[in-house]
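Continuing the batch. This is chain 6 of the set; chains 1 through 5 are on the previous pages. Same settings as before, nothing changed between runs. Recording input and output for traceability.
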Amino acid sequence: MKRWLLILAAVLSLSGCGYNQFQSLDEASKSAWSEVLNQYQRRADLVPNIVATVKGEASFEQDTLTKVIEARAKATSIQVTPETLNNPEAFNKFQQAQGELSSALSRLMVVSERYPELKANQAFRDLRVTLEGTENRITVARNRYIESVQEYNVLARSFPTNITAKIFSYAPKPNFSVQNEAQISTPPTVDFSAPKK
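Output for chain 6:
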């Protein structure tokens, strides 16, 4: 009888340890991360088409195009593995490269506004719409990843599952962060007064 009580106690204590929940949430975060990578790849695949279309404009600023090409090369050169999710330094490096590509593409779109022939080009307009849609998909995928990491990290830090996390080395996962957090937390200066003459 005592033996059965010990077995029952062991089963009940293991059911509350969270091991299976860690496995489930880890897979969910990996799946969400794969979708983020899928959308980043979609964007990277669009860049050569955008650059080729823009190069058709002989007078377009080559410096802007060069920065886009370099940013894409850097973003696609970083090898991402499942271990990247558990390595804050590698994760940050990947995030910075993607941020540089986003910034370079934004500059390209702003500069392209100065070229009426380019704005009238149907292929460029189609690519621009596709790129905007892809940026939205990236945002949605990143939000899903952030939510899955949050759920995993809450489990890793909550009692009693934090004991299981320590035993099996389930450290909290790094999440997306903003590179210029201090800069964007400062409210912008808005001045509606008439310019001085």
